[in-house]
Amino acid sequence: MAKQTIRSNSISRRRLLTTASAGVVLAASPFRINLLQAQEATIKVGFPVPLTGPYGAEAQDQVRAAEVAIAEFNEGGGLNGRKAELLVRDDKLNPGEAATRTLELIEKDKVNFIVGSLSAAVQLAVNNITKERQIIFNSISQSDIINEVSDFSKYTFHEALNPHLTAGAVGRYAFPKFGKKVAFLTADYAYGHEMVRGFQEAGKAFGVETLVDIRHPLGTADFSPLLPRIQALKPDILCIINFGRDQQIALKQATDFGLKKSMKIIAPILLYTARVAAGPQAFAEVIGGTSYYWGIEDKIPSAKAFNDRFRKMHAGKVPSDYGALGYGGVKTLLMGAKAAGSVEPDKVIVAVEALKFDYYKGPEYYRKCDHQAVQSVFIIESKATPQKGDADLYDVIATEEPNEKNLRTCEALGHKS
After folding, report:
1. Where would I find the H helices in 279-381?
2. What is residue 416's predicted lDDT score, i.e. its pLDDT?
3. pLDDT of residue 20 exceeding 90
4. What is the structure's pLDDT at 388?
5. What order do you get walking across the sheet with 156-158 strand by strand?
6. Are 117 and 98 contacting, i.e. CB atoms less than 8 angstroms apart?
7. For labeling, which of 49, 225, 328, 396 is most exposed (least CB within 10 Å)?
């Protein structure tokens, strides 16, 4: 029995050595390395946006465009074989709900990045969570505050335009052409307030006078009590500063009231989805700004490539303006991770800061001090009659090319030079 025991141990020891030797060879082989990397968890991108509520149409298009970025990344091999996935959550256009959903995405779902938001206030709530948890957040909603030193962190990126840039571009185009006396009809929250400030800053160079700034709550259904007051002031320009369904209703009622006969109506942002919903009459002759319009594909190859892929994945539709931001916000972080060879936040931050890219709208990069995307602003005018199908809604009448001089300075935002 003793000999049998010794023999049995000897066999086990030989088998163990043989297995260990094979394991060393396997572990050292490229096949083994690739296999381990392929088995790593997917790269998770949390995507909180307001799928329900007044901005639902815009948010749903952001999801569709983000799916294009995910598909392209995965088809391009991912990150050393690691694929990406999009985890969409409804933030209900509510800061508290957005904070809760973001916290769940980070702590429960273990996301690597957060991209999203469609409200200035909501994105700040998300940003508070992500910077505390040291997770990179790329905001796809307009905001000036998110770039300021009090809210910014190294984990914060801002793919969207900001109100200073957007309103400034539209103002620099409109004020010399249409006059100096300006009235504002403004949604009473951060987005509206910041847009007014942007127009007024741009207007200083042209001697613009603010006649009135009438503020209304989100979800206003009837603007008729406000319109006679505006008409009585006889402005040269009426700036309608709101979003989503509010924009549709305000422009329709202003048109029905006859304001277009005596003043030029402009908006900092003209929404593709709002124009589709409201029809041509409400938007006719209105001028505004946008970060993206699918019609630029005639001149910008990257826009054509993005549009074609979007059409292929989404039944022939074209992406909207805010939809394109969903694509850009996700794409830049994934490409930053690929450039870094890692999803470690510090490495990705350095890589994204170094990106000089043209993914969907022409040249773009992130300014290092505040991670604001330096990009073009397109000035558009609504068409009365589409000529290239139902999606042919706007003419691009001017382009303000990427220029840091059009942004608030790093020093003005509180960052050290």
Report:
1. 280-283, 301-313, 321-340, 345-354
2. 86
3. no
4. 80
5. 84-90, 43-49, 113-116, 136-139, 156-158
6. yes
7. 225
Please report, as a single letter, which amino acid is at residue 357.
F
50: nearest Cα among 66, 61, 40: 61
pLDDT in tens, 359-387: 999 999 999 999 999 999 999 999 988 77
Question: What token pair was written down for 377?
Answer: 């602003």
Helix (H) or strand (E) holding 17: helix 2-28
Q: In what order do the strands lie in the sheet with 356-357?
A: 356-357, 364-366, 373-374
Kindly state the DSSP code that residue 54 receives in the 8-state scheme. Answer: T
Q: Which of 201, 202, 218 is nearest to 92 (CA)?
A: 218
Integer Cα distance of 128 and 6 in angstroms: 65
DSSP 39: T
* Per-residue pLDDT at 238 exceeds 50: yes
> Which neighbouring-strand residues pair with 302?
none
pTM confidence score: 0.88
Question: Containing H/E element for 157?
Answer: strand 156-158
DSSP state of 285: T
Q: How many other C-beta atoms are found inside a 10 Å radius of the C-beta of residue 75? A: 10
Locus of tokens 């429960």: 108
Alpha carbons 379 and 401: distance in angstroms, whole number: 11
Helix axes 95-107, 120-133, angle to 10 degrees: 30
Mean pLDDT of the chain: 91
Question: What mean pLDDT do residues 196-215 have?
Answer: 97
Strands 181-187 and 209-216: parallel
pLDDT at 417: 64
β-pair partners for 212 = 183
Separation CA 356–CA 368 (nearest Å): 12
Residue 54 is predicted with a pLDDT of: 84
Distance CA 231, CA 235 (A): 7
